[in-house]
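FIELD: query
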Amino acid sequence: MGMRAAIVVGATGLTGASLVEQLCENDEYVSVTVIVRKKPIFTHPKLEIKIRDFDRLEEQDIEFAHELYCCLGTTIKKAGSREMFEKVDFEYPLAIASLAKKRGIPHFLVITSMGAKENSPFYYNRVKGKLEQDLIELGLQRLSIIRPSLLVGQRKEFRLGEKAGEHVLKLAQPLLIGPFKAARAIEASQVAKAMIIIALYEKQQPVTIYKSHQLAKLDYPEIVEEDVSREALFNWDKHKLSDTVIDKEVHFHRHDQEQK
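FIELD: result
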């Protein structure tokens, strides 16, 4: 069993909720802390819940951990305005990453989006691209940028636009091959799983960007169990008389000679 500790922000969203459950069930982790605005339904002996106002997060709110997973994200419609959207999707993740750096957390993993680019013609992708660039410039010890395509799974709230997009992508899935693989929808649970695999097994580099089709293929390494046979356990060759050391100076006398 491992001795790792993890922190998750954005733990009540589709990917974040799955991530927390998977971390708690993973033997490598003994402690999972979530920083949330409202208490989640999920409970576990490993889980510690910190209810905080993200506008007032301080350094002492973030204890040391081996990984900080940032799954914060919303939509303009849900946020209510572009200003509030940027606060959740840009300002909060950047501020949390800065606190993580101060606390000496060695690995920051963040979910952005497929198509994230500072000069994108799409506002959503521009915000995500700016977040990525500012995180890179922050100089974190290790930064893993997760770029999934459309996330699918069972959400608590109904999002009409995403549901429509999910339906279209599922129908088009067989046609999305070659360079279009990146557009395939991906299960949020697979993204969560991929993030853990990245933390535990992927090569450690200062900055790594994982695209959706790469996330879809990540899986835990196979554990090969050796088939130890009875013959391997008991190597009878070691017990042959020819390999036995005999003290040649020892003399054995017959009983009838001793009577003489």
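FIELD: remark
Confidence is low (pLDDT under 50) at residues 165-169, 241-248.
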